[in-house]
Amino acid sequence: MGQKINPISNRLGIIRGWDSNWFGGDNYAEKLKEDSQIRVYLKARLAKAGISRIIIERTLKLITVTITTSRPGIIIGKGGQEVDKLKEELKKITGGKDIQINIFEIKKPELDAVIVAENIAKQIEGKIAYRRAVRMAISSSMRMGAEGIKVLVSGRLNGAEMARNEMFKEGRTPLHTLRADIDYYNAEALTKVGLIGIKVWICRGEKFGKQDLTPNFAKAKSKRRPASNNRKSRPRRKN
Q1: pLDDT tens for residues 80-132?
Q2: 16: which of 174, 198, 205, 232 lies 20 to 30 Å off by Cα?
């Protein structure tokens, strides 16, 4: 089963959180459609920003959009001007609802399956040999600390008349181990001979114990104050 199912959906609620966090009643379909429109728009609007995840949270009066990216400067702009423009543009999609945008930088983009797969796709579209593009991506991911990576390239490779698949592996990618932190993405490269599919699995180690699945990527700080140790000790009576 682990070989067939999407490894991200298989680990939801265990070591991975959801990308949409809200409760919907009768207007559930409208909210779901709105989320899809926001993601499609941001992916097209910020195509060069290296976006990995777009997480949407909803309250009664506010929509919070969290973007994880390898190039936060492109999204923020000078003095935050681009963020303000994005808010106004997203308000048109959501019907004037208040928008809050949070941006988180990906420290190691070589360990992100979305960025790795899209980079391979761009190189293939730029007429770079697919074997070279894949091997460069694998070597950079392993060098940055990945425990394993697997890349599947499918389609009319090198312009062949018959489509075929080719797999590249290095390290370990245990798909059946639910505590294994495996990132996955499926990208497409548009070439003259048709679409080339690129699937990427990256194992970033294993996670043990209870995980923090909060979508804002910030660990909730405890508000409890530590017990005071400055209590004055009472003098003991001498017998």
Answers
A1: 889 999 999 999 999 888 999 999 999 999 999 999 999 999 999 999 999 99
A2: 198
- Rounded CA-CA distance 146/75 in Å is 27
Rounded to an integer, what distance in angstroms lies between the CA atom of residue 173 and that of residue 204?
Answer: 9
Alpha-carbon distance of 156 to 140, in angstroms, equals 26
Nearest to 75 by CA among 54, 98, 97: 54
110's CB contacts (< 8 A; 6+ apart) are: 116, 137, 140, 141, 143, 144, 146
Cα–Cα distances (Å) from 139 to 3, 120, 186, in that order, read 24, 13, 19
CATH no., domain 109-206? 3.30.1140.32
Cα separation, 20 vs 58, in Å, equals 8
What's the half-sphere exposure (Cβ side, CA atoms, 13 Å) at 162?
A: 1
CA separation for the pair 151, 60 (Å, rounded): 42
Question: Contacts by 88-94 with C-beta closer than 8 Å and gap 24+?
Answer: 89/41, 89/45, 90/38, 90/41, 90/63, 90/65, 93/34, 93/37, 93/38, 93/41, 94/34, 94/38, 94/63
Q: What CATH number is given for 9-105 in this structure?
A: 3.30.300.20
Domain extents for the chain? 9-105, 109-206
71, 104 contact by CB (below 8 A): no
